[in-house]
Amino acid sequence: MYPAFDPSFLGLYGDTAATARVAKEFKVFYQKAPGKTPGSYTVDHTAGSYVFDPQGRLRLFVRYDNVPNLVADLKILLNARG
Question: 5 to each of 1, 2, 20, how far by Cα in Å?
Fold first, then answer.
């Protein structure tokens, strides 16, 4: 596992081709960028989270700067489950 993340964190990963396919499907950006030291790197990427319902349908895309509205949006989705 990657030491930069908590062990309970579940992330999507794959080879270069699989990553490109999924990024295209989800319409997200990613780009490897050189790090501060030789051999290191960072990854610039879309900052947001997807919320799926129990049937696997995409319901929300939450931008990193729109978290305050997340609680209200989730309450609407939960109340719609009837």
Answer: 8, 6, 22
Task: Convert 19-75 into a string of H (helix), E (strand) and C (coil).
Answer: HHHHHHHHCCCEEEEECCCCCCEEEEECCEEEEECCCCCEEEEEEHHHHHHHHHHHH
Residues linked to residue 33 through DSSP beta bridges, in sequence order: 42
DSSP H or E stretch at residue 7: none
pTM exceeding 0.85: no
Query: From CA 41, how far away is CA 35, in angstroms rounded?
Result: 4
- Residue 46 pLDDT exceeds 60: yes
In angstroms, rounded to a whole number, what is the distance separating the alpha carbons of residues 25 and 3? 28
Residue 69: which pLDDT band, with cuts at 50, 70 and 90?
confident
The residues, ordered by sequence, that sit 6+ positions from 6 with a Cβ below 8 Å of its Cβ are: none
